[in-house]
Amino acid sequence: MLLWLPVFPTPAWTSDDRLPLAEEAALNPPTVNFEHFDHLFTEIAVDGKTMGVINIYSEYPDYAFAIEPAEGFACVDDAARAIVLLSKQPHHSGYDDETTRKTALLIEFVLHMQNANGYFNNFLWPDGSINTSYRTSLAELNWWSFRALWALESAYQMFPSDQDLTRRIDHATGRLVANVKRDLPVAELKTQVVDTLELPTWLPHKYAADQAAVAIVALLPYFKRSGDDEVLQIINALAAGIMQMQKGDASNYPFGMFLSWKNLWHSWGNSQAYALLLAGDQLDRPDYTRSALLEIDNFVPYLLESGFSESILIKRESNGISEEKRTRFPQIAYGIRPMVYAASEAFRVTGDKRYLALATSLRSWFFGQNDAARNIYDQESGRTYDAINSATGINLNSGAESTIEGLLVMQQQ
User: What is the pTM of this model?
Assistant: First the structure.
C-alpha cells in the first residue's frame, strides 16, 4: 500500500448504498465466455508463416464475417486488444496451452504488420496483403501503433523460454519506441488556446489526450524493462499534457473531465485516468494519482447520474465552462471499459471499496442498466453487442472490438 494514500481527499460522491451490490457481484461474478471470441479467431498463413487474426465484423443473425471494403478483414487494433485480453487469462509458457498458443499466433500477426518505417500498418486484406494506403491503416504515430506496443509488452512475460520470440518483440518495440522518441514533440511543453480552452500542443497529433493515455499504458512496462530515461521523460511529458486537458473540479463543471481531443470528450478510448493511475503507482507520482481520482470521483458519477453519452463538447464562457453539445448515442462497450478499468485500478491503488462499487455500477451497463434496458453482454454465447443506438434499439452485431472490450470488463473482477 502506498504510504502517501492518506493525503487523498474524500470523494465528493458517496456510494455506500452500492457497496452491497459490489459485494454481491464479487460473490457472483459474470461468466467470462470465450465462445464468440473463439469464433472470431482464425489462423491464416501469410508468406508461409502461420499467424492468428481476429475477424473484425460478425453480423446478426448468423454472425457470419464481413469485410470492410476500404479497410480489410483483420487489424492490429483488434489483435492487440486480444493479446491484452489473453495475457490476463490463466496460462503457462508451454505452447500446448491454448491461451499461450493463440497469443503467440496473434503476436506473429502484429509483428508481421510492422512497416519498414518502424510503425505499424493496421489492416490486412483477405488475400493476405497489407493495406498500406487507407487513412486508418497508415504506418504512423497513431492508435494502432500504440496498441501494438501495449500488446507486445503485455505478452512479453508469457514467453520466458522462447528466446527467438522475445528477441523479435524486443526488436519491434525498440524500433517503434525510437520513432516515438523522434516524433513526439516533448522537448518544449507549450500550450495554445483552441476553441476557448488552453490546451497542450505536445501530445500525439498535438491534442490527442486519448492516444497519449494508450501510449503511457504501453510505455510504462517498456520503461520498467529497459530503464530508458528518455522514455521516462516522454511518459512524464504525456502525463503533464493529459493533466492540462483536465477541466473543472469537484464543484465546477465538467467536474474533472479529461478531454479527449481539443474541446471534445468522447467515451471511447478515454483511458486518461487509468493511465495516470498506472503511472502514479509505478513512478511514485501522487500528483498523477490525485488527478486521475478527480475525474473518477466526480465526472464519472456525474455521467452515471446524468446518463451515459457518446460525446460531450464544451466551451469556456465568462462565468466558467459550459456544455455546448452532448451526443447520447451510440453507446458502446469501448466507451464503458475504460471507466471500469479506471475505477478498478483506483480500488487497487487506494483499497477504497467505493471504487469497487463504482466499477460494479459501471459494469451493470452490460446487464440492462442502460438506456435500452437490454443486456449488451450475453453470458451464454460470449457476445457483446456492437452498440446501443437509441433508447429503444441495439445493434445486434457482435464484432471484434465489442466482443473483446466486453470480455475485458468481465475479466476485471
Answer: 0.94
